[in-house]
Amino acid sequence: MPNQVRVRYAPSPTGEPHVGNIRTALFNWLFARHMGGSFIVRIEDTDVARRVDGAMDAILDALRWLGLDWDEGPEVGGNYGPYVQSQRLDIYHRAVDELLSSGHAYHCYCTPQRLQEMRQEQTNRKEPPGYDRQCRDINEDERSSLEAQGLTGVVRFKIPLEGETTFHDLIRGEITFANQTMDDFVILKSDGYPTYHLASVVDDNLMEISHVMRSDEWVSSTPKHVLLYDAFGYEKPIFAHLPIILGTDRSKLSKRHGVVSVLHYRDEGFLPEAMLNFLALLGWSLDDHTEIISHDDLIRHFAIERIGKAGAIFDLEKLTWMNGMYIRQMDRNTLVHHILRLLDDELPPEVPRPISEEYVHAITPLVQERLKTMKEAPSLVDFFFLESLEYSTELLIQSGLDSARTANALESTLQLVTGQEVWSAEHLEQELRPLAEKLEIKTGQLFGTIRVAVTGRKVAPPLFETMAVLGKDRCLTRLNVAIGLLRDG
Length: 489
Ligand code: GLU
What we know:
It is a single chain. The chain has 489 residues and is mostly helical. It folds into 4 domains: 6-85 and 245-313, HUPs (Rossmann fold); 88-242, Rossmann fold (3-Layer(aba) Sandwich); 331-384, Helicase, Ruva Protein, domain 3; 393-488, Arc Repressor Mutant, subunit A (Orthogonal Bundle). 45% of the residues lie in helices and 9% in strands. The protein is built from 19 helices and 11 strands. The strands form 5 sheets. Strands 3-4-7 form a 3-stranded antiparallel β-sheet. A two-stranded parallel ribbon has the order 1-2. A two-stranded antiparallel ribbon has the order 5-6. Strand 5 and strand 6 form a beta hairpin. The N and C termini lie far apart (81 Å). Residues 10-12, 44, 196, 200, 214, 218 line the site of glutamic acid (GLU).
């Protein structure tokens, strides 16, 4: 085993940072940090047709959001750069020449049309599709004459016609593929770009990668890589293929299951600590029961031996639950600042700025227990700030009461609270509880209508604490407005 742990996360910039992909990044990062090794980011952008503008930035943003810092890679550089494959074309061309000269690769001039016809015939004959190796044995003269016709072609790797290729996987044990099941795959395309297989092997070797940890879907590529390593005479890294990520219906996680971009969860108000914890448990576990594991403990305990083989289920409900746990554990001041920032962004412009930090400090304890995502915060507390509340008068009328009795109850409340000098939650409760009895209505009915009058909604944080924080003036105004609505209606 190489003595220095060097692992890489090698995303292709083809779309949004998928949770499965970022889980791979996280496992590599945790392993590097646990072992005191290096975590390298390499951008695999040699599939020109699939490149998406902005995808690389989005991937790097997702890593930064989760705090997955990289020791080498784009933006930070390093001794093994460049770390973007499209900037390493010469290196791949030299590697391809090496394989051509050693007889491990050959030029193929088959046209796309011929390949398509060949595939069609294979399908008709119910044979597995694969290149029929027509160009494998053409000689130099034939090659020159084909090139003279202006054909550029591709370069293919020569798979041994017999035998087997075996490798050891740290998670799945020994894996063997019959060479006959492998195609003479392309290593250099006609556009001059290498394919993933070639570029990834060349780079993993040059970048001295010790462990290749990637998702299960690459298992069938690994024997091809092993053959490439052998053809080059490179020392092989250690392989570990991570379990697949499934939706709650146990099928492979895809857009069908909901949004799979990590940045979406950031934008929806999930905390990076919760996301990190959640992703770490997609295929890895500390023991058979611990769910909440801090960043430091993840690094301290991460071990490849505890990565499972079975598919890991991406359960949004669990992520939401975990996020709520992290919000509850959050330091009060940090949460206040989060909420303050969100309110500043989302409250309507007529709410005067700057928003009072002291006021948000008083509000925060009333919602900290109830928040599942940060994004819910503004809509949960906006009534504390709005000058006038919009709600339907019907909401004020509790079941078993009518409009007149409700208006009466609110008037008595108004009278009672107007006279109060002390404006605290306990005191308000002490005064208002007996009022229900006096009015011969249930406390639930009285408190229900007061709640709607002062918050504009049926479900809100605890009533008396809310009234205490809202302050006397606001409560009196709102009670008056509610009475007016009932009397006019
Ligand atoms: N570029 C590949 C991907 O997008 C990397 C696979 C590997 O890690 O070898 O997943």
